[in-house]
Write a sequence for this structure.
């Protein structure tokens, strides 16, 4: 063998191998891009209360239907409904009912009537710090704490003494005004009156619970699915002499818990194609199991399991 040609031959082989490898990588990349391009994207936007379970649904649905790319985002029920009004998303998630004016704007802008699907239920829980000795509260007492004309400023006014606390002024934890949770609480607890000034308004349900867990004098409201061992969910009574009920699956399905609510998904007209397939799956036993695993209440008693949130309510 010609020693002068050997290095050239070696370099040539390396060059050919590199080309072949590049071709494989390029082909693989093209295949991935082609597969992604062939996927149908379904956009879900809205309720922060529902965003955790929506993400869980999206992750599981990848294993069920690999031809769909689910894009999930929060921002609040009002944000999701506003996007649906413009026709810019496939599904609006809302922890409150769509308002008539929102329905009318959607029809005017898109020419389609919104279609409502109730995908589960939620007990809107009232949270206090785990060291707070209070166990139950009435709707009127909550209004006295949160309403702009409410006169309850300190825990001592409710006969509550929090261990290790000198200043017992109540710290109010609320949500931003675009939130369906905010609207529901304002309607059911404050009788549509305004909130008291000075509340700390969180962007998400999780943030409400986290702040309450770190603030001994705080009180806040959020979906029961966000309960942790560091907070306490209060039993709630409609009136002073009524029985107070905890936010549990059974109490929600039996309409005993005063702050139970429906969780909705809205589409433009009857959903079609992959949007319909996704909603049908959410309403199936598999979708409802994931709903419960994330601390919410199923649409029917036949699906009932025991979610983690109910363990914290006992």
């Amino acid at each position: 063998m010609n020693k002068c040609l050997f290095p050239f031959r070696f370099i040539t082989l390396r060059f050919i191998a590199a080309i072949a490898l590049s071709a494989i990588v390029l082909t693989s990349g093209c295949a991935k891009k082609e597969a992604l391009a062939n996927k149908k994207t379904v956009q879900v936007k809205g309720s922060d209360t529902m965003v955790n379970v929506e993400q869980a649904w999206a992750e599981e649905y990848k294993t069920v239907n690999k031809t769909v790319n689910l894009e999930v985002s929060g921002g609040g029920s009002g944000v999701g409904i506003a996007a649906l009004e413009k026709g810019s998303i496939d599904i609006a998630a809302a922890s409150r009912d769509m308002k008539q004016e929102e329905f009318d704007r959607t029809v005017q802008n898109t020419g389609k009537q919104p279609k409502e699907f109730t995908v589960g239920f939620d007990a809107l829980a009232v949270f206090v710090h785990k060291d707070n000795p209070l166990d139950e509260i009435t709707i009127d007492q909550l209004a006295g704490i949160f309403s702009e004309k409410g006169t309850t400023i300190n825990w001592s006014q409710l006969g509550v003494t929090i261990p290790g606390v000198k200043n017992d002024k109540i710290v109010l934890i609320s949500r931003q005004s675009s939130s369906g949770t905010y609207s529901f609480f304002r309607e059911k607890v404050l009788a549509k009156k305004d909130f008291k000034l000075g509340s700390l308004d969180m962007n998400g349900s999780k943030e409400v619970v986290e702040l309450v867990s770190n603030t001994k004098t705080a009180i806040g409201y959020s979906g029961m699915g966000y309960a942790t061992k560091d907070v306490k969910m209060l039993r709630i009574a409609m009136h002073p002499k009524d029985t107070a009920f905890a936010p549990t699956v059974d109490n929600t399905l039996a309409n005993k818990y005063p702050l139970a609510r429906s969780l909705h998904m809205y589409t433009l007209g009857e959903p079609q194609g992959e949007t319909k397939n996704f909603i049908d799956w959410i309403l199936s036993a598999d979708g409802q199991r994931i709903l419960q695993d994330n601390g919410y209440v199923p649409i029917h008693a036949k699906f009932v399991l025991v979610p983690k949130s109910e363990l914290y309510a006992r």
